[in-house]
Amino acid sequence: MIETQPGLAEPVDVSQPVAVPGMEMAPAEVRSHAEVWTLSRRWGGFLQDIKFALPLLVVDVVVSFALLVGVWQFTRSFLDHSLSSQLALTGLVQTVLLGLCFTAFGLYRNLGMHPVQELERVVTATSFAYLGLAALVAWSPSTSLLSELGVVLFSGCCCLIVLPSLRHLARCYLGRSPWWRKPLIVISRSDRADAFIEELNKERHLGWRPIGFIQEFRDSWHRDHLSKLCLGDEDDLPRIIERNNVFWAILDTENLRPREIQEFIDRYHEALPHLLTVASLRGDTGLFSLGSSCGYYPAVHYPSFHALLIPRSLKRFVDILAAGAALVVLCPLFLLVACLIKISSPGHIFYSQQRLGIAGRPFRIWKFRSMVVNADQVLKNCLAHDPALRDEWRRTQKLAKDPRVTWVGRLLRKTSLDELPQLWNVLNGTMSLVGPRPIVHSEIAKYGDVYRLYARTKPGITGMWQVSGRNLTSYEERLRLDSFYVRNWSIWLDWYILLKTIRVVIFCEGAY
Hints:
By secondary structure, the chain is α/β, with parallel strands linked by helices.
């Protein structure tokens, strides 16, 4: 029932990963040192996030609950003795709503957020939380409904005034402790690295603890104390990151060209999941147009969710849940397709092919067979006798009118049903529901520098290429789409692609 279809890829030794430029590899059956280090770093980053967020969460809960209790007791003692005694339940619901709203507005991971920006978000999140609590109280059967609504709304108003101030004071107090602040390094090719460090040491409430800087041009040092702050040059960066457990860095882009900035991000973003680029000193850009701020320096924050524990775990959880459910629900469709393939032409129902996955590790991809059995020979004959087809294959690795495809295969490819067996690849962890298009070994040369990005994540059943024109796009456009996906991956991007995939499959856009 299974056919291995050669000819579309060079033979690959599946016991060894493919070398990725700049990446250290090990046998596939043994977790490499780099992978173990990455796993331990993800846990380390998660623990740093917990240490940063937990004190702020305690402040928010204690202050909001204390205000609710105070207003509740005052109202009950002096104004309304019939007030319900469900204080504990109301306080619990308030805590949950406040925590969810503050998390949604990024108030527990807001390193580098200016106090004015934080004030805006605290007020907005608090308003949403208390309006939600008031709505729940209004729906509950109570003899003192108006009193309870008044308590909730008045305590919410008090919280809007008191909580932002106490929260800022808590951040200033916590900023005195290196335990709370996250280590950060400055990467600069100019002589102003110490200016960033001095600024961040003054603005400790931002949550960063600068430990030093990386500087390539040592002859630009102009102060004696800089030698104490210098951690090394760019070649030492991986060792410095691991030794100091660093997840945040500031990249001074003053003397860097755009291409150099992008190359740096592509090279180190897996090791530095939070990278801030700063272009000018104390710019006059508006507060609310900034991605982040380093004291009074305008900055752009480039997060890498690939290197963070919770986003990757959530992606894997969704893959397992969705792929498992789809395999069960689609069993009748699998049987129907298998029967049609058998009727259309002799041969196996499935075929497998070696593709390259995360970290360059080869794996076997599964599809419903859509070609004739002797597809290799048919392709060679066609390419040998038809220059136009040969040129099309060289440019796209696909043929619009492929002579190897059976009549059932055309239907399967048009509707993308031939991809359904890849749900098993998703379930066993070699693929994801969403990711770059899986490539064969011979495409590494075509991918060039993009292959480094490709090897950072699992290939997917669907992805940016599949929902952006698919076979109607050029190979160069396909590389650009894969690069965009890896550089900008998030759970929300996956969700967008999955929703768009539904429309693409229904209307058979770009498929042949």
